[in-house]
Amino acid sequence: MEGFDLDLSRPPPLPGTVEECHRVIEALWRALGEFQQIQARVEELEEQLALGSDNSSQPPSQDSTKKRAERKGKRPTGRKKGAQVGHPRHERALVPAEAVDEVRHYFPHGRCECGGSVAVRGFRPHQVFDLPEIRYRVVEHRVYEGRCGCCGEKHQGRLPDEVPRGQMGPGLVAWIGLMTGRYHLSLREVEALLEEQWGLKFSLGAISQSQIPLQAWLGPVYNQIGEAVRKALIAHADETRHYRGRSIYWLWALTTGQMAYFLTHYSRGKGAAGELLGDFQGILVTDRHGAYNDHPQDSHQYCWAHLIRNLERIAGRKGQAGEDGERLLRAARLTVHCGKLWQQSHYPSDRYRRRLERLKALFRRELEQAAQRHGDNKTGRSCRKLLDDFPRFWTFLDHPGVPMTNNTAERALRPYVIWRKTRFFSQSHRGDCFRPMILSLVETCKRLKIGVYQTLRTICAQGMAEGEVTFRLPLLEPQPLPVASP
């Protein structure tokens, strides 16, 4: 035989010499290697098909139909939908009498059917709420001019500083900013709503131009939010894609319980993260994105929800990798459960802390064993990366009061993600600057529970009248973190 090629479609001929035996063995090894490569590729593709919002950063809206059907829902309680028998009543409170616009009285007949007279002893209030028939308000400012009867010099009156130089007053400019930045309407929808609701006709260009001065007026308040959030003791950071035409940018968010600061940047790297954080020295809560890793390790908390999704992906693999992933996943879920109990108890006891310390040791041990067992394959590399990041998952133990998840930042980004999905992308640098400013104001006002429209109207009125905005948001001083009892 001049050579030997392994053909799996038929049994190979029996080798007659030692050299032929070696060729058969080499062919078998080659076939085994090719089979292992094909098997690894199949497993990789199956893993990609199994990706969803429960084991990756993919949003739930992109889950497949099968994934949505498999998604865990609430257990049925067996009760009917709606209010349950015996639930506390929730009724609209009556408006005080001095705040009622009009009172109409309805009296019973003065005489009963039996012939007796009816004495009025009281009344039952029934308040009806309705919207007034609205109409825009026009103020005409007449600027007169004249000439001196002696020298003929021309004289002309001047508009007061508080009168807008354009055709839009502060209320209208603030309303357009509210519709675009808070309710995410497009300029065409704002144009249509202005005409339908108010009877006002403005061109798309005029509506767009009205937001140019608003961007400048928002600057001082935007800077106030940025300076305040960087002085917070705890802040959450996250980022999402921002598009300008076909170019990909990034919208970054740094948030607390009462503030939300947004920033657009062309990069998703450490430079952009450094620009977002500035001189922030507090405890930072993030996902596992490496751009934030320049922040000191002892004041950096990784999100456990992201960790659980990573472990779900490992647990979905076949064989030993899946078994190791299941053990790590159970340990992570126990940690989150125990951590929540510890936080709900306001840290008065050391019992939960001792449990968390035991879970921490167990989690590290499981990671080390899995990393050693799987060597340099995908599961082994993932476990070694988790070991490198291990201290950043347990910062909440050293600083009670630090959340275990990054939900605060993700909730702040969600309105923008919806805006991005339902409206056109930003088309200019001005749009890139306006969106983070208006989002910062809107989200901070929502957290402070103050009206967005009234805030915008105050800012616009100051900007038009004085040329400088002195308004500032009522931000509170950061509160100290709770301390665990020894």
TrEMBL record:
InterPro entries: DUF6444, Transposase-related, Transposase_IS66_central. Residues 12-92 form the DUF6444 domain. Residues 68-90 have a biased composition (Basic residues). This is Transposase, IS66 family. Residues 49-93 are annotated as: Disordered. Residues 53-63 have a biased composition (Low complexity). Pfam families: DDE_Tnp_IS66 (PF03050), DUF6444 (PF20042). Residues 165-431 form the Transposase IS66 central domain.
